[in-house]
Structure formats: C-alpha cells, structure tokens
Amino acid sequence: MSRRLAFRTAVTAITAAAVAVLAGCGSGKTAASGSASTPGFSTMSDAKNTQHAVMAVPSTPRITAEGRTTAPPWDAPADPSARVAAAGLGMMGAEGNVMHIHAHLDVLVNGKPVTVPAFIGIDEKAKQISPVHTHDPSGIIHIESPAKATFTLGQFMTEWNVALDADRIGGLKAGGGNLLRAYVNGKQIKGDPAAIMLHAHEEIALVYGPANEKGKVPATFPFRAGM
Questions:
Q1: Could you tell me the residue range of the domain that residue 3 belongs to?
Q2: pTM for this entry
C-alpha cells in the first residue's frame, strides 16, 4: 500500500468513528438524561420537537403562581389541561426530549410532609402531557421539553392548582406566629418562591410553620441512577 493510500484510509476510518460518536451524542439517550418515556406517551421526533417548541414552551416563563387557597391536602386537579394552560404552557401528545431534567419538591406543614400527587400536568383522558409534570407521588418534577427553556416553580404550582407567593401556600398564610419559608438545596431563598427556577437535581423545600421553629429542612434528594 502506498503512503498516500494508507493516509486516505486512516482519514476515512477516523471520520467514520467521529460520525458515530456524534450520532450517539445527539440521541438524547444518555444515562444522565434518562431514556424511558411516560407510559402511554411516546418520545417526540426531531421534527415534532421543533413544532411543539413553539406551541408548548413560552419564551418567558411564568414567575407567579395561582390556584386553590384551601388547606392541604391538595389532590391533582381534575382539569389538568386547563391548569397547564393557566401556567402558560402547552399540552403535547408526546414527551419532548431536547431538555430532560428532574428536580424534587418537598412541602412541609408544621413538620409533616404534604404529598405532591402523581399526574400533575398529565391529562390521561386526552392523552396529553405538559413539559412539566409528575409521574408519581414521590415529589420528583419531570421537565421533558421539546426546547431548552427556563421553567419555574410557579408554573408547576399553577399546574397543581395551589396558590403560592412569599406569604402563602394554598390557604396557609403567614401571620399569627407562622411563616412560609422556601429553600433550594438547604439554602433559604428570599422573595416569591414561585420565581424559583427548576434545575437538574435540585431539592426545593416549601416549609410552613411556627416562625421560631425552623425544623429539619431537606438539602438533597436521592435521585436514582439515570435520572
């Protein structure tokens, strides 16, 4: 084999290997992002991601929350599609896979956990799903979007149909010796917690109770491997 032919052969092999690596990187099926889709929902194709990005994901996220002003527990809403629309998001017939991350929410009232229910942001009858949703009552918030974007706790709480601002969660208001505190990874956050952005593997805690009793605030959550 001539030197020139050998060089061309080597270049061809290197190029093929590079293409294979890039194809694998673009698949979105890495261990970190997770590859499983919600039962009953497929994962979007690239063309569908582009189409749904315009309809389902706003350029500016909602940083306030509106919903029920009642005491807990707060079930998943009976009208999930309407709540997703109220949050400024759109429903999709399949899960987006351009952005796939998970955050965790704990709600504690007087030291006791309040369940974050399954199927927030999922309309099982219509077979439609929001980019922000829950699969189970673990408190894990799934963000499976057809575009990279900023999503907030306010959007999620509006989907859940539970009011939230700096002084209240649902029907629980600050006053009478009680406070609402918000934490991200164990660090207290000032201002309206509805503006908290949802990032990968963050632990968000909303804690309501006596002002003089902080209690134990979770700082981390043990996400399973692959999430």
A1: 1-30
A2: 0.79
